[in-house]
UniProtKB/TrEMBL annotation:
Keyword vocabulary terms for this entry: Chaperone, Isomerase, Rotamase
Main location: cytoplasm
Trigger factor ribosome-binding bacterial domain sequence ranges: 1-144
Species this chain originates from: Faecalibacter rhinopitheci
Protein name (Swiss-Prot/TrEMBL): Trigger factor
Keyword Chaperone applies: yes
Coiled coil location: none
GO cellular component: cytoplasm
Entry keyword annotation includes Isomerase: yes
Trigger factor C-terminal domain: residues covered: 262-371
Length: 440
């Protein structure tokens, strides 16, 4: 077997592979002998089929499969051994006719080569934002915690903020009991002042903003004109806010994590600033990527990529469609190349232990959101194992670790101009940037 490579232009090449009969005949004979032993052909006893018949029946197909296997392996090994950085996959050059009985077979494969370019992060300059958390925002979190960890308290009559447990009769037919939050109703006047045992008859149009809300609440399809519902009040409750004391601190942050209201508020402020810092970090990445795309110029093997898309994507029937698709994916492709260049220059790798650590951090944070600050080790290990066994989730966590490493490289190398802003100012800035990104 002989392999050569001819460069057609700076970013394209053709790999030519010449296969001799000696390269595949032994394997072909072995496969045909196996066919002869197992073939079940009418008129012949098992294992007694003449080899001439087997060759006539299966020979060309076996040669085709064997040669194709050899070619795929040869192309892959050549790319790896020559350390070629390619885009897409090799495309076989179609031949009108192949004489499979010839002593020598020659095949061509087109490849697209990744462009050579340099990335200089020191020339990138972006703004970064430090969000200052004000006392009124801390108070919102405190109010949320006291509400979330509060307890149900019975009320004598319906009032603002009440939560009602009701039996339901829809158009005269009994339905499943449900709960109604007074604050969620468009108009709660029909319920105000009612007590346990009272009956309220209304049309869904009068109490819900949309038919979707009515449908979701009742558990049955509701038409535009609404339906008549009879509610019988079984319970009238409200949520009594939790007191701001050690019990609340322990429920929110774990036993003994904070020991005073001052420390509680300070921890809320710190965690809020850390959360906003993560959002600001995302914006650093977005802004650096935007500048790199704008300032790092290189050509792509457009002609090859257009052919490759046509060849590899069944939904693309013409080169015109492929060209349109390439235009859509070009920005993403360019950044993948830039990202790979930066990662290679900085030896960025992600190992399984780092992915596991990311899973632990993500799961711990998620459990914390639901008020679970402690969990048995065995249960935690089961949750982590479940997450890591899900390939999609593993890939997501792996890319998150990779992204965090890229962020660290950006922070170390690009020029960051820090700007202190309020939360509202930060939201306005991010909203405007996202709008610009969507329009780009």
């Amino acid at each position: 077997m002989n392999i050569t490579r001819n460069t057609t232009d700076n970013l394209s090449a053709v790999i030519t592979i010449t296969v001799n009969k000696d390269d595949y005949q032994e394997k072909v004979d072995k496969v045909l002998n196996q066919y002869r032993k197992t073939a079940n052909i009418k008129g012949f006893r098992a294992g007694q089929v003449p080899m001439s018949f087997v060759k006539k029946q299966y020979g060309q197909a076996v040669v085709y499969d064997t040669v194709n296997e050899i070619l795929q392996k040869a192309v892959s090994e050549h790319i790896n051994e020559e350390k070629l950085s390619i885009l897409g996959n090799p495309i076989p050059v179609v031949k009108e006719a192949i004489d499979w009985n010839a002593e020598e077979l020659t095949f061509d494969f087109e490849i697209g080569l990744a462009p050579e370019f340099e990335v200089d992060l020191t020339k990138v300059e972006v703004e970064t934002y430090k969000v200052k958390v004000e006392e009124d925002e801390v108070q919102k979190y405190v109010d949320n915690f006291t509400q979330r960890f509060g307890a149900l308290k019975s009320l004598e009559a319906v009032e603002e903020g009440a939560i009602l447990k009701v039996d339901q009769t829809i158009n005269g037919e009994e339905a499943k009991p449900s709960f109604i939050r007074v604050e969620d109703l468009k108009d709660a006047s029909a319920f105000m002042g009612k007590k346990v045992g009272d009956v309220v008859e209304v049309n869904t149009k009068d109490i819900f903003d949309t038919t979707e809300e009515a449908t979701q609440h009742l558990g049955t399809e509701v038409a535009e004109e609404g339906v008549n519902v009879t509610f019988t009040l079984k319970e009238v409750n409200t949520v009594a806010k939790a007191e701001i004391n050690q019990e609340l601190f322990d429920k929110v942050y774990g036993e003994g994590a904070v020991d005073s209201e001052e420390a509680f508020r300070e921890k809320i402020k710190t965690e809020s600033e850390n959360m906003y810092s993560k959002e600001a970090d995302k914006q650093i990445i977005n802004d650096v990527v935007a500048q790199l795309l704008a300032n790092t110029t290189f050509d792509l093997p457009t002609e090859f990529l257009t052919k490759w898309l046509t060849f590899s994507n069944e939904q693309i029937a013409t080169e015109e469609q492929a060209a349109e698709e390439l235009t859509k994916m070009e920005k993403s492709l360019r950044y993948q190349l830039i990202e790979a260049k930066i990662a290679e220059a900085n030896n960025v790798e992600v190992n399984a232990e780092e992915v596991k650590e990311a899973a632990v951090a993500a799961i711990t944070e998620q459990l914390k959101m639901y008020g679970q600050t402690t969990i048995p080790e065995e249960s935690m290990n089961q949750i982590i194992a479940g997450a890591l066994s899900n390939q999609e989730e593993y890939n997501r966590l792996s890319y998150q670790v990779f992204t965090d490493k890229m962020l660290a490289i950006f922070k170390e190398n690009v020029k960051l101009n820090e700007k202190e802003v309020t939360f509202d100012e930060f939201v306005e800035i991010i909203t405007e940037k996202n709008k610009e990104l969507a329009e780009a």
